[in-house]
What does this fold into?
Amino acid sequence: MFMILVVLHELWHFTASRKSGVKVLEFGIWLPPKICKLWKDKKWTEYTANLIPLGWFCSLKWEDPTDAEDFNAPDSFMSASFWKKIIILLGWVTANFLVAWIIFTTVFSVWTQPISILPENAIKWQSTSLLMPTYSFLEEKWLLTWEKVEIPLLVQNVSEWSLAAELWIQTGDIFKTINGEKVNVRNISTILKWLIWQDVNIVYSRDGVDGEVRTHCPQDKCVLWIAFATSGTLDLQPIKFPVHKAMWMWLKEIWAQWKLTFSALWSLCRSFWSLNWAEIKDSLNALSWPVWVIKVWESLIESWSWILYLAFAWIISLALAIFNVLPIPALDGGRVVWVIIQKVFRIKPEKYFVWEWYVNTVFFVLLMILGIYIILKDLVVYWWLHIPFIW
It folds into this structure.
């Protein structure tokens, strides 16, 4: 499914380029170095297989300024008009949102349930996504009811890399109070949400003996990464709307997913700007891609939830779309910025190419390093390994 999403993205560049009169030199499976050429079509586009399994790519005619004839040819990207360049680079966003509209309308009009329910303290504000909501949002929309009982917080599992693990919280501990307030299964995430960027004092019981630990929550979330043993009833209602309302709800869902994505991106950027290795490591540990995505899809396949499978596919597609339009070199949004700079300042094509090539190459390498780091981190976590500087 992930490869299908990437292929659809690159097919837009491919189709838009050909419709705009720009020659496509190569359409590659995975990323270079090249393994072999699969075939060449009548318009002299090569279809290739490559070594690095991190996506697909579409290479356009214009990438060799030393070849003046090709670089300035009528069918090169450099010779295309300003608006054709924009359509080639960003027109896929329209197609992506159109398909998302169809998918989300179908999902919401048939029926669905949340893919994941976020704790209140996972983000600064309440998530209004129906596919990734908070408990309080579901209660507000009458989609969730709880049994009104106080359930002791018995720790069932502690993530190895978590804040709770650093505090030496163990399986079997019972949480009693946080900053003097008595906690239970229902209220802990709400209490922690109000302690973002504050000191936290946790009193717990272990083998009948009380203990106390202190920590400080970061400014973007206050998550301990602990699973608690729960009991009582939790009634989750299916999400279903009439078709005319479902056609409107997809816009709200896209806006909610947009906020969730930028919340994660802002957290990562803020950590890097701080130049604090502890903060950077925490943010990197919170990122998972693509191993986590594959595991979620696997669980949806095993449960035969084809509606949720489809919904999750387009959540990932929207996240890719949002990320790709950011004005970062090597991404489509970054290349659009360069096209605008050339247009506004009337930079000569040869000079424009040199500057864009160097900047894009540097950022592409950095993005690949980040991607490889995250993949390795996910794999070593999945296999319970410890590798210095990774996990």
About this structure: The longest strand covers residues 24-40.
